[in-house]
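User: Hi! Is it possible to get a structure for several chains at once, not just one? Here's what I have:
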Amino acid sequence: MWYDALMQATAGSRQIIRTSTEPGQVVYRHSIATRITHWAGFIAILVLVMSGLQIFNATPYLDASDKSDPGRRVLEIGAEQAPGGAQAGFLRIGGWKITTTHVLGIGDDGQGGETERAFPGWITFPGYQDLADGRRWHFFFAWVMVICGAAYLIAGALRKDLGLIVLRPSDLPKLLPMQLYYFRLRKEPPEHGKYNPLQKAGYTVVLFVLSPFLVLTGLALSPGIDSMAHPLTFLLGGRQFARLWHFAAMVAITGFFFGHVFLVLSTGFFNNMRSMTAGTYRLGKHEGVGP
Amino acid sequence: MKRALFVASSMATALAGCAKATNALNEWKPAHDLVGTAQALNHAVIGTRGNARLYSDSEITQDFPTNGLPTPTQAAYQSLVRDGFASYRLPVTGLVERPQTFDLRQLRALATLSQTTRHDCVEGWSVVGKWGGVPLGEFLKLVKPKREARYVVFYSFDHDDQGTQFYGSLDLVQAAHPQTQLALDLNGKPMDADHGGPVRLRIPTQLAYKSTKWVQRIEVVDTFKPIFGGKGGYWEDNGYEWYAGI
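Assistant: Yes, the chains can be modeled jointly so their relative placement is included. Here is the combined structure:
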């Protein structure tokens, strides 16, 4: 019922898709499949990152090796006796170490107190330390994420407009001008289609590089998958190395998330939100609907 | 200054709210049950296929850890430790044609499988070790599981702080996997008390919490529902998945 209402509300705008467009024109930008998979995917990523940090806490270090190897430890979060006698939290990356008490190493226990744990309770899922339940949420939303990603790609292929989001060689010369425009060093953005060249670069990397990499590095941690497909874990440098890659890819996608939110806020928040809820969007200058 | 304090304290309140919200979601049964459904999917898709990677002996982890639950302190186990496991007996009961009890000499005679594999802990770390012992599939042929048999349950000498006995289970497919074994040796020496001796289960295609240490007796069953918490293992009764291939 809500779907029919939505379709009716957006029916007019859906009919005005044209190849030639002008600024200020309202176009139908995001299909219902894109909007649903976007928001379901957002929830999935949120839970995956938070439950992933919960899982990380059970072994709060990362080794660039197959079996665990303190000699190849790249990152470690922990607590140790500080010179004054009190316990202090620390983050160590390679040879670089900082005190992180109250945030990392020692922090929120998720139940109103403080305790020794790598990531604090306010950023893990669930808040209190519980590896079993962290895994439970992680695996469920891993499936949600994979299904959302596949549904998005299949729907785009069926609509025959998936290519609009893919970075092409002809976009490359426009990357710098677009970046300069974002930095307010250029008055006008370069002429572009549905997505600007920087969006295409970002989305292409996230959709076709980072997301598959996150899935593969996660699967490589599983002894059952490793038994079926030795080369996967092997190519990643082993099980512990796969865990390091999985974590690094999580940091990358979290970075993308903050950049994305910043740009949604700073490039016409209401227009952007309208396009990802109702589906309609008012075109800006030099913006089109094509490739 | 006051304003900075106000901002800081409201941020702290908001952050504390985060943990409260995720805790509440986790404890809300419909959500908890829903996210638990992924286990069946993982079991169906990954299952028990292929073999765990084999390592060379030079890759064996030095200073081999003794993780998991502490070595059992119960009198029954401690008296076994004192006589060097000479009086150890392994009874196999339940849905089998030929229930039998094995002593260590008999088990050693059946120990044909030595393999250097990686031991993957659910916590995230891994070690490489060499386990020698009895292939479980061959072992089960001796006692002949009945047609209705579905699971093999391993009871451990170990108990937690509350006195709950440790146990675990495999289905017959996992039990018959050629790398699943009743391990008697670790890194070329008889398994000591701290590493699960004299007999521990070892299933390298799954996470290590399935590899029950200090096996006291084996029971073949058609369902594990009536046993302890009913989830098929001590860790399973404590929230971990029964299928631990992932």
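Chain B touches chain A through 51 residues (CB under 8 Å). The radius of gyration of chain B is 21 Å.

User: Great, thank you!
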